[in-house]
Amino acid sequence: MSLSNYELYLQRSSLALPMAIAFLIFGLIGAPITLMLLRSTLKLFKKPTGPHMTICLGILIFDFTTACIFIVMGLSYIIDGEALPLSKWYCNFNDLIYVGGTFLSIWYVGLMSFERGLQIIHGISLSKKVWIIVMLAELLFFLVINIICFAYDNVRLVHLGIYCMAAPEKTFGKVILYSYFILSCASVLVTIYSYIGIAIMLRKRALDLYYSLNIDRETALKRANRTIIKVLVLLLSYLVLNGLETINVVIEIITELNRSPLSDFISNCLLNLNPIFNSILLIQLHDSVKASLVETYPLLSKISYVTEFTERNTA
């Protein structure tokens, strides 16, 4: 494996160094943000919390871990680019933590969207135990298939030359790619359904308030539309950040070949924004997360005040 990986390293793309620098930058930005949010969110668990907060915590743990790995990957390549291709365990570890953490975060965001959709759209609330079981099942499934992949030596350096991933031409590598594809597509579809459904419900509730409480129609709809636009922008951002990776996986499954370095570079840059985007997502969709963040870091309350003041005066 080391020789094969080293040959791939010698033939690596010229985009490898820019990718390493991008990893370092995204990590240095994402790690502090996710750590701050993780620290403030943990305070909410001093009291009983709903299942959505448990899923949020899972997302933050994976995002913080992944952001830290960004820093390690960037520095590792800049200091000694040969360390990854010459070390089998490091290659496997890189695949497990970087690729695994990225996809688990995407799946958990889909799970959070599904939980919110059931609650807001259909009024269905499942117990926290159910969601924890689903989260653990996804994690266990991921660990099992990857450990098998490691055992059969089905992980290799990608053509970009800076990280390792399951080889699409190998048996268990293909199983992993199919698994990633199915779960990622399910997450995307669930997220689209949930966010659009939530937007429709917000519009409906605004009209209900207008008819039942005689609230000014324009005011009610303007407030609802502002929230709806925010929800749809978050949805569009989620699709943009994760869409290219799904396309790349489909191409790898069909062709059984690694993606092109350019496509991989663009996809990774988009995926590496996920820890930052997910933090914004959690703050925007969960008032308790936002309140705890401001309480933990009072300086942020001034920024929050300016934002809310601007929104009120532009409404």
TrEMBL record:
SUPFAM superfamilies tied to this protein: Family A G protein-coupled receptor-like
Q: Which domain of life is it from?
A: Eukaryota
Q: Which organism is it from?
A: Conidiobolus coronatus (strain ATCC 28846 / CBS 209.66 / NRRL 28638)
Xref: Gene3D superfamilies = Rhodopsin 7-helix transmembrane proteins
Keywords, sorted A to Z: Membrane, Transmembrane, Transmembrane helix
* Name under which the protein is recorded: G-protein coupled receptors family 1 profile domain-containing protein
The record lists the membrane-crossing segments as: 20-42, 54-77, 97-118, 130-155, 175-202, 231-251
